[in-house]
Give the backbone structure.
Amino acid sequence: MTAMLVGILRDICLPLLLVMGVGWGMDRKFRLSIETLVKLNLYLFVPAFIFVRLTTSELSDGVGLQVIGFTLCVLVAMGLASWAVARSPQERIAMQLGTMFYNSGNWGIPLMALAYPQTGPVVQVFVLATMNVSMFTLGILLASLQADHLDSGENGAREKKPAWRRLLPILRQPSIYAILAAVTVRRLELPVQEVVWLWKPLGYLADALVGFALITLGVQLSQTRPPRVGSRLAWALGIRLIGGPLVALGLVWLFGFRGEFAAVLILGAASPTAVNAALVTHEFKGDSRFAAAVVFYSTLLAVAVVTALLALLRADWVPWIR
């Protein structure tokens, strides 16, 4: 078991940490713009990756829908767990933003490419697509509600935004349109790969996501000044990093996933909090300090959690992983 743990740390976690370290070091040297890096991720690399991988995925639409359903179940379970331990509406929303939406892109895609190179990226793209749509719909709604609670607490009642104004940020997210375009191409069997002048650039952008996402994550960590770990933060970290894989463990059995396919989904559910959760919270004037703290600590702790969990999965300690 010791040799296996060392091998996982060396061959899977260390490559991730090294590229993240490059981003951290470059930010310390040049003070990079995290807003620019995030926009490149959200508006360029992630949509290209989703479109290319969904279009070329060998998973059937039925299995893809099962993965989407599985991911939504994990998301709902994390939200209910956060609701159960929170003590106020404001704290409940902060906890939900920190636990429901996990980093299936910047962290999950590189991790799966190293841990399960054949199955991982194929499955993870459906998780990533689900998380992106959820983050920029439900996540934006939660962040705006949190901002309303904070603002009313400090300044009294304020004029509420019309419903259509709340929908505008959702409609601006390119990942949603990338998913719709990919589904259209698959359903109509359009020969988009034969359009070389379009497909080649999309392929270049999709292939660049892994390295660029890790560098962005390193810059994010470099610029985060998290508070000390209190009870609320500890609960959020426990729900995200321990509750996530435990819920996934039961769900893969319920959905009938087996073998490496199930292992990919369980491992992915142990991902740290999505960077987008902190960015959306910041944009909507919510509790951005708490959100950044969850992202920071969960990313650091995820290295240990992933190492231990991957060792258990590879040692076949879970009967239905065999």
